[in-house]
Design goal:
By secondary structure, this protein is mainly β. The protein has 2 helices and 12 strands, in the order E-E-E-E-E-E-E-E-E-E-H-E-H-E. The strands form 3 sheets. It has a 7-stranded antiparallel β-sheet, covered by helices on one side. It has a 3-stranded antiparallel β-sheet with strand order 7-6-9, with no helix packed on it. It has a two-stranded antiparallel ribbon with strand order 4-12. A hairpin with a 2-residue loop joins strand 1 and strand 2. It is globular. The N and C termini lie far apart (55 Å).
C-alpha cells in the first residue's frame, strides 16, 4: 500500500488546560501518599488522577525479604531498579535484576519479586493504565515517609488484610495467586 492510500491521521487534540504539570519530590513533598504494604513502602509519585487514568508511577522501597506474593493483573507493569537488587519470578522463571535494569511484565502474566539482598532496594513501578495506585491506597497503611516501614501485623490484622486485598483485587483487575505448594485457601 502506498502512502496516498493511507487514511489521514486524526489531528492532535487541543491542549487540555484543566490538567497541570505534576512534579514529584518523594523525599521532600509531605503531601505524597506513602503506603505500607506487604512490608514494603510504596510512594505514589504520579497518580491516575494526575494522568487522566493513563498510568501511575510508584516509588517502591523494598527491605530485605520484601516484595509482593505471586499475582497477575490485566494491565502492563514495568519496573526499573534504582538501587539494590531484586529477584523477579515471571511465569515460573526466576532472574536477578540489579540497579539500572528494567523489566516489563505483560498484562495477565503471573509474577512476583523479592529483595533477597542485605540492603533495601528501590524500584520505580509504572502501571498502565492506572488503578494500582488506588488499590494500594485502599489495602495498605499510611506511613510518614518514603522509607518508613509499615507496622507489623499480628495474625488477626494479617488475616483482615488478606481478606480485604482478596475482596478488592477483582475490582482492580488483579488476581492473587497462592505461592507454589500452598494451593488455594
Amino acid at each position: 500500500m502506498t502512502d496516498e492510500h493511507l487514511p489521514s491521521p486524526a489531528p492532535i487534540p487541543a491542549d487540555d488546560l484543566s490538567r497541570s504539570l505534576t512534579v514529584a519530590r518523594p523525599d521532600q513533598d509531605l503531601s505524597l501518599p506513602h503506603i505500607g504494604l506487604v512490608g514494603d513502602t510504596y510512594t505514589i509519585l504520579v497518580s491516575g488522577q494526575d494522568t487522566a487514568g493513563k498510568y501511575t508511577l510508584i516509588d517502591m522501597h523494598v527491605p530485605l525479604g520484601g516484595g509482593p506474593p505471586p499475582h497477575r493483573h490485566d494491565f502492563e507493569e514495568m519496573f526499573t531498579v534504582l538501587d539494590g537488587e531484586v529477584e523477579v519470578t515471571f511465569r515460573g522463571v526466576t532472574m536477578k535484576l540489579t540497579a539500572g535494569e528494567t523489566v516489563n511484565v505483560p498484562a495477565n502474566a503471573p509474577h512476583s519479586f523479592r529483595n533477597l539482598a542485605e540492603a533495601p532496594a528501590r524500584l520505580l513501578c509504572l502501571c498502565a493504565p492506572a488503578g494500582q495506585d488506588e488499590f494500594f491506597t485502599l489495602v495498605g497503611q499510611a506511613v510518614a515517609t518514603r522509607t518508613e516501614a509499615p507496622p507489623p501485623l499480628d495474625d488477626a490484622k494479617q488475616a483482615a488484610f488478606i481478606a480485604k486485598a482478596a475482596a478488592l483485587a477483582p475490582q482492580f483487575r488483579t488476581e492473587l495467586i497462592p505461592p507454589p505448594g500452598q494451593g488455594a485457601s
